[in-house]
Amino acid sequence: MTEVSSLTGRLLVATPALADPNFDRAVVLLLDHDEEGSLGVVLNRPTPVGVADILAPWAALAGEPGVVFQGGPVSLDSALGVAVVPGGGEGVVVSGPGAEAAAEGSADSDHASPGDEPLGWRRVHGAIGLVDLEAPPELLAAVLGSLRIFAGYAGWGPGQLEDELVEGAWYVVESEPGDVSSPDPEQLWRAVLRRQRNELAMVATYPDDPSLN
């Protein structure tokens, strides 16, 4: 089997050609990517449901907007917490189906030492990681920079994401800690593209409806 170069911690930005309505103008943070498949969350799909409505103990730590985000079409009845620890703190742990595998898959990311991580956390990439939503929030309150709660996630089987990349469905770009907690998630697709120092910056001007161009 061809070795897969891990894209864990990168962003998948939907190209204008991507036809799947689940991922129209989506910005996906990859939480795990290897030969066995990929798992990520869509960062720019806020729902009307408040965090306080489903995970009241975590509501005070969730960034604005304080709502649950639809992380993808898989396991919509499960919750994932993604958070940033300022200063490159060691990342995070997972809650929900597939999350444990994601955490294990990223355990060696950036050569982090488990002893350096706060309880209830596992680093995914840099200062970004996954939160164990079953841990007491007060354990993490002092180190937490920002928290976002996702219902569901996006998943790809072995080789599936690679096929989509070849087909031109996604741009792959570097993530920034602020992407997780963007206060204006509806504009994240354009914002991520606009900051690229290549031809992708021009794609940010692509009209929502090409027929109106």
Beta-strand residue fraction: 25-35%
CATH C-level class? Alpha Beta
Order of helices and strands, N to C? Answer: EEEEHEEHEEHEHEHHH
> What is the global morphology?
globular
Number of strands: 10
CATH topology: VC0467-like
Return the CATH architecture: 3-Layer(aba) Sandwich
Biased composition (Low complexity): 96-106
Organism: Streptomyces gilvosporeus
Pfam family, one: DUF179
Family: Belongs to the UPF0301 (AlgH) family.
Structure characterization notes:
The chain contains seven helices and ten strands. It is of the alpha+beta class. It has one domain: VC0467-like (3-Layer(aba) Sandwich), CATH 3.40.1740. Strands 1, 2, 3, 4, 5, 6, 7, 8, 9 and 10 form a ten-stranded mixed β-sheet that branches. A hairpin with a 2-residue loop joins strand 7 and strand 8. The longest helix is centred in the middle third of the chain and has 7 residues. The chain is globular. It starts with 10 loop residues before the first strand and ends in a 10-residue tail after the last helix. About 13% of the residues have low confidence.
